[in-house]
Amino acid sequence: MTIYFNEIKNSSSFCIAAFTHTNFTIDGKVSPCCLAEPLEKGIEDFENIWTGSSYVELRKKMLEGTRPLECWRCWQIEDKKGYSDRQIHNNTFLKDNNENLDIDVIKGNTTGFPLWLDIRPGRFCNLKCRMCYSGNSSQIKEEIYLQNKADQDIIGDRPEEFDDWIDNPAAFQIMKKLIPNIKTIKIALVWPKADTVANSRSAKAV
Ligand code: SF4
User: Fold this and answer.
1) Is it true that the peptide bond before 192 is cis, omega within 30 degrees of 0?
2) I need a labelling partner for 7 at 20 to 30 A (CA). Which of 34, 94, 151, 171 fits?
3) Which residues does 205 contact at the CB level (< 8 Å), separation at least 6?
4) What residues contact 119, with CB distance under 8 A and at least 6 apart?
5) Pocket test for ligand 1, best of 21, 25, 33, 58 (most atoms within 8 A of CB)
6) CB contact at 8 A, 140 and 129
């Protein structure tokens, strides 16, 4: 299905990220972007998730003019007349691809794979930015762990335990399959943790 430039510009529910972009969260969930609520867990099953009912329903809603609930952060920003990530994604994509777009409700686009990857292979970031939380930052997690539960509730951050998915061989097989189609890749790592990842068993296999 070809989407025309003017249709996208005027749509208030369409986001190109749902058709071209994927985010792997630190705990192995798959979402269209880092702002959207995760659709499913299981990077090793990514191909089925990309063409599966959660992604397909999200894409259909966007084309039908319905705002998917998973994207509530963008709707909240737009309702307050802000400039959302949806608008940034659409405008950037249209600027870089000055042509009509072939999208597919099931396969996303004609390649059948995402064109953008935003990867958080575990809790590897060792910065402590003010706007972040324990889900991404190893330093914030350590600090919040020292708080009691009541204080964690006040702060609104209760660190969860999970295994970093970097050493899951099945997840890395998926990465190997996706990378040839990828035009842009973002990986959230901070040195020296990046060294740990680069030297991991699975990374060497890619
Ligand atoms: S609408 Fe917003 S939250 Fe949804 S996929 Fe696009 S950028 Fe992400």
Assistant:
1) yes
2) 34
3) 169, 172, 176
4) 23, 24, 175, 185, 186, 187, 188
5) 33
6) no
Residue range 9-66, pLDDT digits in tens? 778 999 999 999 999 988 889 999 999 999 998 888 999 999 999 999 999 999 999 9
- Does the reported pTM lie above 0.90? no
Give the number of the atom of ligand 1 that is nearest the alpha carbon of residue 16. Answer: 6
Run of H or E residues at 41: strand 40-41
Angle at 140 between CA 121 and CA 195, to 5 degrees: 40
State pLDDT tens for residues 101-111. Answer: 788 899 998 88
Cα(16)–Cα(88) distance, integer angstroms: 10
Helices of type H across the chain: 5-10, 17-20, 46-50, 53-64, 72-79, 85-96, 138-145, 149-155, 169-178, 193-198, 201-205
